[in-house]
Amino acid sequence: MNTLVWVLLGILAYSAAALLLRRYGLLPSSVSVQGPFTTVHTKRGRDFIDWVATPKRFWRAWTNFGLGVTLIIMVGMFLFLLLQGLFILQNPPEPSAVNQPQNFLVIPGVNDFLPLSVAPEIVLGLLVGLVVHEGGHGILCRVEGIDIESMGLFLFTLLPLGAFVQPDEESQRNADRGGKTRMFAAGVTNNFAVTIVAFALLFGPVIGSIAVAPGMAVQGSYDGSPAAAAGIEQGDRITSVGGTPVSNESTLDAALVSTDERTLQVELNGGDSAADREMRTVSVERSLIVAGSVADNPANLSVGGEPITVSQVNGTPVHTQSGFSEAVGESKFASLTTSRGTVTIPVGAYVTRVSGDGPLANAGAPTDGSVIVTAIDGERVTSSSDLDTVLDGTRPGETVPVELYDGGELSTYQVTLGENPNDGGGFLGVGLFPGTSGLLLTDFGAQSYPAGTYVALLGGDGGPGAGSVSGALAESPLSAVYVALILPLASLVLGIPNFPGFTASVTNFYSVTGPLGFLGSNVFLLANVCFWMAWINLQLGIFNCIPGYPLDGGRILRTSAEAVVSRLPVSEPYTVVRTITTGVGVTMLLSLVLLVFGPTMLN
Fold first, then answer.
1. Which compartment or compartments is the protein found in (predicted)?
2. What is this structure's pTM?
3. How many CB atoms lie within 10 A of CB 481?
């Protein structure tokens, strides 16, 4: 059975046990259970809240500021959800991992974006988020003279889903409209405050104390690859190949291309690192395999089952990628002898997408993708990496001939290159499949883990070649917000694995240094706590700003609508307010349903 089935069985068992306990009167009066949902009430802590609420001027000023921020985000969330809903109705996207049932559950290890390895940090962030949110409501209740009936937690089985402060209904009705509005805004204000503090720590001294260890971090090895056969696995760092030091993926590729030796000595886990992983040397017997393929590739090969090996190119035995390029030479076509037969293919960089307004499309090239670039400016191109290398030597605005294979024939287009937003070089405006002619060929087979990219995205020094936030966003204070939102969803947004945090399985890729170096490996724990604390509090704050009842945004919408309508010459202000809040709330609900379920329902 899969994990989701086990979770559902556990929920049923919990519900049945809770039902029996309630039937036999074994539950305390402060605990109420409805199926898998549990509510725990308490009157304790009210005196403490009264004490915290003593500086009333401070809390009113604090929540007035927070209310302004909340109103801006409310408007932004309304427009975002409305426009996204309309877009999905008009152009339904393909379902993604976000639309899978298990990803609607806020359960680490079940939700694909909440790793089990950092479950304690996630639960801690959730608890802190709930406490400060509802604590804010409680404090402002007392500041505005609203009595508190009780407080408590709302749980899904044993997992906290929410906390609550239950105001006395009569005193809440008697409170002025401004006081109630500040009370509703206090929760999200505190969530955003926690986010700012956690990010300030993470982006400052914490990430400044984490450096990328030398070597190429290994995410895993392709099945049937030489690296897998040599025992190179997830968590290893390749620090030397054939006596040549390796500092990252680029230097590994350069070391492999520089030699045609079939057997290489590979050093793993050398140099400084945070983990006590065994340093060792292994022998890798190189052979050329197809590790991946795009649909409808000209070789008609699909990876699956037994590994696909390439033994000859144009009748010449090959076992390395450099040998493959030499065997192809200047020929635009090559005969490949593989473990699944012999095929003849055009050799070049496989284009999966041509931007409709990009330089290549503007030159008259076909825009339906599935074309192959075989040469640029007279230079032979045999792979996507060749194409990148040639473009690196060009300049924006330069006009160069680009040779394409499309529909069984070769055609040349005069292309005026654009500017690459990443490095300022020439730009074609195309998406590429890595490798040659829709085939991912490798003579080694170790997959890189983007350790440096994660550090760079979090504001640290990721080292040469590490990806980072670029453009105007890099200079914006919203950069931290952007990173917080995308890193756990990096596979969907950035094309790299989802960020799990600095867990035990990846600490071999990092070393501890800088201002918090005295903490040793505890720096990674602190980094995980800060990251997930910020991420969860940001999610709680933004979600509660949606202008729909019973969320805080919906309650603020009601008090704001009442304030505006009360100044208008209308005979039935209550009806107008109810129409506004109901209309906005229903719109938000439908937009959320479309956002979550639309791609599946409409495809």
1. Endomembrane system
2. 0.80
3. 17
